[in-house]
User: Fold these one by one.
Assistant:
Number 1:
Amino acid sequence: MIAPNPPDVRCHLLAVPLRVYRGVGDPFLIAERFPPPWGERVVLPTLAWLDAMPQTLPYLSIALPFALVTIIGGIDNTESAAAAGDEYRARDILLTEAAATVLAGCCGGVVQNTPYIGHPAYKAMGARAGYTLATGLVIGVGAATGVLSLLVALLPEAAIAPILVFIGLEITAQGFLATPPRHGAAVALTFVPVAAAVVLIEAGSLFAALGTAPTALGGDAALGYQALVVLGNGFILTAVLWGWALAAIIDHQLVLAGLLFAIASAASLCGAIHSPLTNGALFWPWAPPSAVPGHLAGAYGVLAALCWLATARNRRITP
């Protein structure tokens, strides 16, 4: 639904319940052992964070890509709602999530807000404006009072996973049904970087469980993991650029496709996509961490040049 909910809450709903229960025991015992005072639960807006601004500068290379992701997420979700018959202005949605992020930051929040994905699926299940309002109240009040963490710890993973699977299937189906059939290949292509990102997440959990790190890999395994890192980092922007470029090629809009490849080339040079760093951080184009960004930027540049050359050739041939 189009409602700004904290993305970190979604991550907790996916990962926390089973791990919390197995790792630290009964959540009621946790609450009794560490009872936070009411005054520490409810956080009021403050400008004290301004004093910590110098300490945040080293983390901008990680924070900025997340900010870009939330902007793209807001636009994507607005389009998803439009496909379900509900028109919203993307500008209003982006302004709402920006205002919510600023307000949350003044209260100590560290994660940007973005609309919750799955509008068509929730609408198909009968959700309306009341569902969105109730969600905001439950998440907001629950998080402020500390009740939400207890609720998340109580909910079994098996009860939540089927809901998320259903929503994922609805979103995937909409991606194909709401686009012209000729763009099916472009939609399919967008899943490639997303799949790489999912494998990276699962591999990270596996390495943590085994008590090792990706640096322990060698040979083809190390090369394969590095390929996943490069493909998965910045996957949302990568998926948008790849899908848009292929759709433009299918529609014979080669000038647009060349422009998108040029943007991808510039994004590769600073790590906005295909960052070879395991944390996906940005870097200056003149100080890359390896030769990979330069190679990828060059490859995208060649694709852009080919598209523009093909356009020029077609113009000479067409009377």
Number 2:
Amino acid sequence: MARIKKDFSPPEPKETGRPTFYTDQLAAEICERLAEGEPLAVICRDSHMPSSVVTVWQWAKDRPSLSESIAKARESGWDHIAWKVRKTARGKLTYEGGDSTGDIQRDKLIIDTDLKLLAKWDPKRYGDKVALTGGSKDDAPIKVETAAKLDNLTREQLDQLLSLATAADAARGDLGGDSEEGD
């Protein structure tokens, strides 16, 4: 009986996935679709697009002009989404530029979701402004001051309060308060 020789060498690696060749036309289509509000992950699901957003990020990293174009396209896309939110709030259907379903509760959910996403993606333009300021002309931080009504205190309570304040001043080294030296 003849011996069968088996080849145990590792198999040739197969190329997996879609090609990741950059072309200006592909980049232009990506930017155009981003400007229409379509997420990059959805764009990359198409068969003629790179299979991963990481590939597009790498292209943008290697090409500063592409990175800038993607950033501008995203901003335009967010404006487009905001415009669609306004149309949806007015009951406009898809063919009219909105996403209204005719169901008020569903439309509220669509609008709220889009507004929350816009606030996360571009908080300066679409997020709530949160600022803790004192309202002064130079917008200083809030100053916390504690005030007490003294008119309801008894004479004994006022004396105790005065002795506590005097002790606190002495501990700080501010014994005299408003002293009039040199008179």
Number 3:
Amino acid sequence: MGGVAKVGGLGGEGAVVRGLVCACDEEEDSAYQNSDGGEKDAGLEEAAAEATGAIATAKGQLKVNVDPSFARLVLAPRLPEFLAKHPALSLEIIVRDRLGDLVGEGFDVAVRFGEPEAGRLIARKLLDTRIIACASPAYLARHRTPRHPRDLENHECLMFRDPTTGKPFDWEFHNGREIVDVKARGRLIFNDLSTKLLACVAGLGIAQSVEFGLEDYFARGELVQVLTDWAEERYPLYAYYLSRHLPPAKVRAFLDFAIGALAARPSA
């Protein structure tokens, strides 16, 4: 998946430090603290509580902006566990394929695939997943199995639209230090990963996708990986939030939940 999409922040100059997108001015703090009424006072209360050794309680409303695959595969199945652990917390979940403006839209935290851009957000890496190519047994029975990435130029490729650029993702394949760009073409372009994978299961072409979420397709025999020697490109999953200092208890609770849920997956 060449030309890996970067996730847009909120603009402004910043610096990437140890995987964090850190602001270089103090406007971020006031923008975050004032984005939800009493957030500033709540943050001060939590800091005071923790200074005395008390554990701050996650409470109030948490508004999250999450990637569709994360929402379907990780968040939804484990919501009962999260809500039971935090009975004073309510949750609003917005599922979409773009980050947007966390401050302007009132989000507390976001979860997105792709490399972060320097800006006014803290970005915490949650996961690295491989980029792989796959097809259905039915498709491979009708067409010659590709042995080299260049062979894909003679196959029907299922394209996926980059929400950042509006254009289909470029395809590239990594094997050690060698990177091969492929002029992938296809009659079908998708903006929803689940729909693209169902089309792949139906035998409509070869797909390039993050490995995250493909485990069940492989286990059921609906898809098989191709070009296994050319699957060394990685694609990250990040959580984003706004405060450079101690995040609110409700944000920390969600981050802990996300890390634990991902760690519990077989492919994590």
